[in-house]
Design brief:
globular; alpha/beta; binds flavin mononucleotide; eight-stranded parallel beta barrel; 31% helix
Amino acid sequence: MNDRPAPLRTELAGIALQNPVMLAAGTAAYGDELAGVMDLDALGGLVTKAVSLEPRAGAPAPRVAEFPGGMINAVGLANPGVEVVRSTHLPWLASHLQLARVLVNVVGYAVEDFAGVITHLHGVAGLHGFELNVSCPNVRAGGLEFGADPVALAELVRQARDATDLPIFVKLSPTLPDIARTATAALASGATGLTVVNTWPGLLIDVQHRRPALGFGTGGVSGPGLLPVGVLATWKVWKATGAPIIGVGGIASANDALQYIIAGASAVAIGTAALQDPRLPGRIVADLAAWCARQDITSLSALRGSLRWPE
Ligand SMILES: Cc1cc2nc3c(=O)[nH]c(=O)nc-3n(C[C@H](O)[C@H](O)[C@H](O)COP(=O)(O)O)c2cc1C
């Protein structure tokens, strides 16, 4: 770690990161697909694509569509299931990464699925924590998303906490009516930190055919338009909790990443912008280091939550 710029070293809920720049869930697959196009081990870490108990085929094509403010996707949380991730993908990550840290993004359709996935991954090498995607529908409870149901969320996080000693991040939707309150409740049930934010629901229409642009119909909005939404949500969660936060949403430059850190994030994750340019996350690391040098900042993490709110 000694050849990395020291000002960027940081700590995320007890996980030592060589820099605060991570790849967001679902946009880096399980790392192996990116091996030839980006130096994963130069980043702080990556969050895997969603992992469920059973394999999932996902949503019908088209799964993504672009618009001037970013993109919309309905991938349907397609994944090979926890057993393949345990036996194939995580060993690949463990043998190829020395410095970058790995969080597994967990998804479920019933409360107990989350702890089920975590239990299945117990003791696997090269895994540093979990991120719970609670923006998906609780199928047994009529499709309301887990994160919007305080009783289901508390139980889900408690079960996950009982299943592992590793850090657990609960990933929150920007549509929650009171995101700070949900964050506080997740921490009270045993979460170590929060990931802020997931995509925003949206609909793009193919006017010619008068059909949704995506095969599933609706999708999640990501990219530049999500930046101010995620920065505000981060600031609200930081003020209410002071807990470790991974800031996500619309990051495409060092300046965007700095906004999340000043709003209270310990680390940031890049999704859409890295899909468009796989070399961008590495450039953001270099740009953050250059910014610290120019500003004479010896520790970027000292800026965390340093926003000066207007009087
Ligand atoms: C194609 C695609 C797939 C995604 N898959 C997941 C996923 O599996 N689990 C999850 O929690 N979030 C998923 N997300 C959401 C991202 O992790 C991130 O929260 C969101 O895209 C906002 O960041 P961005 O604007 O940098 O893309 C996905 C996003 C995209 C664009």
